[in-house]
Write a structure and sequence with these properties.
The chain is of the alpha/beta class and about 325 residues long. The protein has one domain (about 5-20, about 30-310): Alpha/Beta hydrolase fold, catalytic domain (Rossmann fold), CATH 3.40.50. It is built from eleven helices and ten strands. The chain has helices at about 5-15, 90-100, 120-125, 125-130, 135-140, 160-175, 195-205, 230-240, 265-275, 295-300, 305-310, and strands spanning about 35-40, 50-55, 65-70, 105-110, 145, 150, 185-190, 210-215, 250-255, 285-290. Strands 1-2-4-3-7-8-9-10 form an eight-stranded mixed β-sheet, with helices on both faces. The protein starts with 5 loop residues before the first helix and ends with a helix.
Length: about 325
């Protein structure tokens, strides 16, 4: 069986993954600036329905065409008063400030709630998973996140999740909000497992997403590194499937504290793939934040950096 480092497991249970949402509707976030339009229980033929929160910046107008940022773990973005750990990305305050300062082009945020207990099966990139040895895949699917909860709540379904984003949610956003619909003005962002699925999204749907930001990307896929073939499966996938660096832009970062302490050597291997695929500073950044931990608080403290990378002022 897969060997787990006890300390990393404890840290991951405390910090790595947002807790599953309840069966009840999540309260609509209260924002400090701008406004939220809740798309309650947005339906899909590919994945279970979920809430989607669309943040509109101050002064949102139908006379303006906005870029669009699709963010994973949407229930963690705007209001610490309703999140499980009382932390948030402060995405509304930071985005509004950058727009007011003229540091980014105008954009809206589409906060897509995660699937609760289905988060891991929807965020784990499917093609790299299917490239793993069959006996290892079986071990993964039998793994527990903690004694009361399995890690993979069913078969990996990230391809279905991306179909939901690209083929159902995006067309709705394009027709119900005043936005630019081309890939050059459409980006995707996430942290931890959300970083993995954001990288997978731009690779599988380069015609939809022109840029991706992957914060504290969870390269191990589980909670141990030793004897774990998952990172190499991701890197092999990247080598084969990354989008054209002439037209697409990718941001990575990581801290060095708590679960992020696992990431520096793995990110270095990912960076080697990026260089081999022709990515340069004009379309790629990897940043290291010394001492930063694996939490919404840490991601909010540096969110201004990937936002300026994704949507530089025109």
């Amino acid at each position: 069986m897969i060997r787990l480092n006890l300390l990393v497991v404890v840290l991951s249970l405390l910090l790595a993954l947002p807790r599953p949402v309840s069966a009840e509707a999540t309260p609509v976030p209260t924002t400090s600036i701008g406004s939220i339009q809740r798309l309650a229980a947005f339906p899909s033929v590919h994945v279970p329905a979920r809430d989607v929160d669309v943040w509109l910046p101050p002064g949102y107008s139908e006379k303006t065409k906005y870029a669009v940022l699709y963010m994973q773990d949407g229930q963690m973005l705007f209001d610490a008063g309703i999140t499980w750990n009382k932390q948030e990305w402060q995405a509304d305050e930071i985005a509004a400030r950058l727009m007011a300062e003229g540091k980014v082009r105008p954009f809206i945020i589409v906060g897509v709630h995660n699937g609760g207990p289905r988060r891991h099966v929807e965020y784990f990139p499917q093609k790299p998973f299917e490239a793993l040895p069959g006996d290892f895949r079986a071990q993964l699917l039998a793994m527990n996140r903690n004694p009361q909860q399995v890690l993979f709540n069913g078969d990996v379904a990230s391809d279905a999740y991306l179909k939901f984003l690209a083929e159902e949610l995006k067309p709705y956003i394009d027709t119900h909000f005043s936005v630019k619909t081309d890939a050059a003005h459409t980006a995707v962002m996430g942290s931890s497992m959300g970083g993995l699925i954001s990288l997978y999204a731009i690779s599988e749907y380069p015609q939809v997403f022109g840029a991706a930001a992957c914060l504290s990307t969870h390269w191990p896929g589980i909670f141990s590194v030793e004897g774990n073939p998952i990172p190499q499966a991701f890197f092999d996938y990247m080598q084969a499937a990354l989008p054209d660096p002439a037209t697409h832009r990718i941001y990575f970062d990581h801290g060095t504290g708590t679960l992020d302490a696992l990431y520096p050597p793995l990110q270095a291997r990912a960076d080697a793939v990026m260089r081999a695929r022709g990515y340069t500073a004009s379309g790629w950044q990897t940043r290291r934040f010394e001492g930063a931990e694996h939490s919404e608080k840490a991601w909010s403290e540096r969110l201004d950096i990937p936002l300026q990378f994704l949507f530089p002022a025109e």
